[in-house]
Amino acid sequence: MFRNRTQLGFPRKVVAYYLLFCLLTIGWLTVGVVATSHSVLRSRTINGCLTRLGKTAAAIEIEHLRTGTDHLQDILVQSKTETRCLYSAVVGPDGTILAHTNPQLTGTKAVEPTGSLLRWGSVTGIRYIDEHGQVRRHYRVPLKNQETPIGSLQITVAEPNLWSTVGETAKIAPLALLVPLLLVVAGAWVLSKLTTHIASVEAQLRAVATQPAATELTLKPLPARDAATLGWNRIVDLLENLRHDSGRENLDSRLSKAIASRKQNEMAAILENLPDGVAVTDSEGCITFANRAISVLLGSEQTDEDLTGEEMEKRLLEEMPTLTDSSLFDPQTINRPAVSELQRHDEESNRVLRVARQPLRGEQIEGQVWSLRDITQQKLAEQMRDQFIDTATHELRTPLSNIKAYAETLATCDSIEIEEQKEFCNIINSETTRLARFVDDLLSISSMEVGSLSAERQKVETTRLFSEVEAKVLPLMEQKNISFEPRLPQKMPDLQLDKEKMVAVLVNLLGNAAKYTPEGGNVAMKVKIDDEQLQIAIEDSGVGISAEELPKVFDKFFRSADERVQAETGTGLGLSLAREVIRMHGGELTVESQLDVGSTFTVTIPLV
Fold first, then answer.
1. At what angle do helices 196-210 and 10-67 cross, to 10 degrees?
2. Are residue 430 and residue 470 in the same domain, yes or no?
3. Radius of gyration of the chain measured on its C-alpha atoms
4. Confidence band (pLDDT; 50, 70, 90) for 25?
């Protein structure tokens, strides 16, 4: 069956492997049944003999008491029939056989076999091998008549071997194996029926594989029985339709066109989903393709389909008249790439757009590729960077100049009074502290951006925390004669906070309030603590913040354009750092302000 299995079809292989598996399983089960039967038969034979031996000994003792040795022969014959032993005998104390299942041995001397000793309660025995090579078990049990020994009962049984077990099992094996064999045959028949259609498909594909490359394919439909045959029939119908197509197009050509169309659709889908506006114009400057982003960036309500056919120059100039003098529409540069940046103003916001043009030439097409990109955020970042550089330069140059000037004075002048020297040293120390604070802010901003800034919470005495804050800001308030009013609860629980960072935040907020509040103004710190949150409000009667600048106060390096704010020194980093610290505590920093009225910065930290 398996000699030439490489040429068997798939269904035949399945059936053959199925039959092989079933036969191996039946064989393994048969071996298991024979082994189990051998063990059971051996145990049953020996235990049955030993059990019957005691009953027979009791019957012999009773019969010997009644009639002597006259009827012992009958008892032994009956015992042999019930126990299937080879023979049994009653042997007297002198070794003479008083009764034997073989009457001819009665009156002769009993022969004791030699072998390994056995014991089962009061029963003793010998296991030996006879002259035919068979294993035998010889048991004997003592007999008594009113406590007087009358001899012993001896019985010999054959120990079952494997072949005898096979013989016993073979008597019932045909009936036991018939049902599994019938089930195997039925399963093979059902499996063959289920795989018939697969055999037909495989045969047709094998025939196709052996045909020359230029031969026309011929496939036949199958009877519709299941989903597989229905799918095969659809493939056959599709090939027939392609063969009888009116255009007689080559299948390879149709596939090539389908692939090209799919690639074109994929490229169009990619361009449609780009955030940058992309458009293609022909040699006349008319739009042949435009994605959705073009309309959005131009601020037009027209769809990309509506833009098709319009002149690109006209559409750009309608939305951005400042492009009139741009090199984008210079006829002398039409064959070279060109880029322009311009600001587009609308009702909602001011945006900066980058417009680029790239010549497009090919075997069949000629025109221009246009791209529009919103670079507003990039320009704002550059503006913020320039502002930071200016601020950093000012913050570094002023204290460095002061330090240098006072240090040179101390080094070159010999006639400086002690008090003046102390004043100069204090100024140098103050400017150095200012520089160190600025560098610390820069390092904190860097840590915040890379995500390494974290809050190390510990149990903090809240009363002591606010006392330290008051001690640090009171000199600032007294310097400008500002009325400072801390409103604290009478009892404040200990909280889990990063004490150092929270003190820095509150000092920064109160310092800003003192810095931007005119002399004689008011600053208040209102603290509320309940089971759910800690709320700190810093109120001042300072210059305030305009509505236009209010959303930007927490941006890094932002400083108000108000002249009163610009007159004070600052880096624009304090509020950004303060908000980040509050966020690390799971809270929020908000601001409410009116120009020339004052500001209120509120810190809210959840305690649950």
1. 140
2. no
3. 55
4. confident
